[in-house]
Amino acid sequence: MPVQEAPLLSAAEFLSAMRNVPGAVSIVTTGRRPSRHGLTLTAGCSLSTEPSSVLVCVNKSAGAHDTIKNSRLFCWNILAADHSALAQKFAGQDGSKGDIRFTEGSWRELVTGAPSLIEAICSFDCCVVETHDAGSHTIFVGEVVAQATNADREPLVYVRGAFAVPRIQDPRH
Asked: Which of 119, 124, 127, 133 sits at 20 to 30 Å (Cα–Cα) from 147?
């Protein structure tokens, strides 16, 4: 029996469906003063434990894209529940770009020199080991060369067009 091809989803249908998929909110940073760049994203995840690596998907039109591509480094900062204003700033909601976005939050450098958010739930400082073209985005695979963790913080997620804080239940109860 021949397989029927399903009609392709329109971009609007796809975006509408994806709004229901919660994602951890993060800021990906790169560069050094005075040419630091960063952007808010939900398209990042762990990839491997040996070697420790993560991936982030960055829109090619983002200001940070070419800096990541050329410098071959980034820091993936996972945001806590009280970081929604910072997430909006790095999403460009206030019109800011480049280094000016770093006037809020407390930043440091780990190994690569990419900005690491001190209050982040965790930050993964990475060297790019692979890039993959994926339509409007580039997938950057980063080998983790340093990390910092604040495990006692609650995560910030994005779902249905808004920031949210998940209710985390104590597994002992």
From this structure: 133
